[in-house]
Specification:
The protein is mostly helical. It contains 14 helices and no strands.
């Protein structure tokens, strides 16, 4: 009980306040141009804050099997959950009236979690500041490659049915992303023994803005006035918040004896709510953006209930 109360104060309270600030911002500042603010803040994160924290962490993190088990385990949970979502949304007759763009948007939101911006505060609470490395390596070695390969395939082939995947090949798009180059540079300096601690400290200072800014943007993104509890949205959220971490926990129990910090960190990463990139993909590939936004909203809200439940069950510790 004491640990749960500490989690509520140290993690849930600041995350809630940051999301709430984004939600109430347009109410207090009527002249705020939300679309412009979201775009510019997202660019600031993508081109400055996020690359900085990736460089700081990757340049000081030795790579070992335990660390690499995190993206492997979360990747397994993501793919199995994707299969469950495909059966639920495309094969069962329960929601045959849903359009393919809606189904694809829910698949993307139900598969991929907000493993950095929500995952890092929870990981740091349980395992200390160095646990940020689990989220960083999971994002770079699992989430980003899978989103921009399998995720794009889902969006284009199962959703919009577009053969014109991107204006440029996916690999070219990925190579233009600053976070990837920051991670590669940081990993190279660590492996070559060229880490310069003052530079790492400077990058970490800049990168600390990543999570507060993104959570503020999340608050502006969730359609608070349209959060109707649609059954298909709640079902996709249940798979993301409950089924995925249970799948990862099951794989951990079957494969690791006894499980270590990295394996429990993988369960935490698997338990995170839907990532905001699902909305970006929905916008980019003409999917159901409203459904993606609703899933992000509901999964974020319900996460405050499912995480304590997993703590009580011993899945997260």
């Amino acid at each position: 009980m004491k640990q749960l109360f500490s989690l509520m104060v140290e993690v849930m309270l600041p995350l809630t306040l940051l999301v709430a600030a984004g939600a109430f911002w347009p109410r207090f500042f009527a002249d705020a141009q939300l679309a412009v603010m979201r775009t510019q803040l997202n660019r600031l994160v993508m081109y400055l804050f996020y690359p900085s924290i990736l460089f700081a962490v990757s340049s000081t993190t030795p790579i070992d099997r335990n660390l690499l088990s995190v993206p492997l385990l979360v990747g397994i949970g993501t793919l199995v959950s994707g299969a469950l979502l495909y059966v639920l949304l495309y094969m069962l007759p329960i929601w045959r009236k849903l359009t393919d763009p809606t189904r694809a948007a829910l698949m993307l939101g139900g598969m991929f979690g907000n493993t950095f911006n929500v995952g890092v505060p929870v990981l740091v609470f349980f395992y200390g500041r160095d646990a940020t490395r689990y989220a960083v390596f999971n994002d770079m070695l699992m989430t980003m490659p899978l989103v921009w390969s399998f995720g794009v395939w889902i969006a284009t082939r199962l959703g919009s049915h577009s053969t014109d995947v991107l204006h440029a090949p996916v690999w070219k798009v990925m190579l233009t992303m600053p976070p990837i180059w920051a991670f590669i540079l940081g990993t190279a300096t660590q492996q070559l023994g060229l880490t310069y601690q003052p530079l790492v400290n400077a990058a970490h200072l800049i990168g600390q803005a990543t999570i507060p800014v993104i959570l503020f943007v999340l608050g502006m993104t969730i359609p608070w006035n349209r959060l109707a509890p649609r059954p298909e949205i709640l079902s996709a959220a249940a798979i993301k918040l409950v089924a995925t971490p249970l799948i990862v926990w099951g794989v951990v129990q079957a494969s690791f004896e006894p499980p270590g910090e990295a394996q429990f960190a993988a369960v935490v990463e698997a338990a995170t709510p839907s990532m905001m990139t699902a909305l970006l993909l929905a916008d980019r590939f003409r999917l159901d953006s409203a459904a993606a936004a609703l899933l992000i909203g509901w999964s974020t809200i319900l996460f405050w209930l499912t995480l304590p439940a997993m703590m009580a069950l011993g899945l997260v510790r």
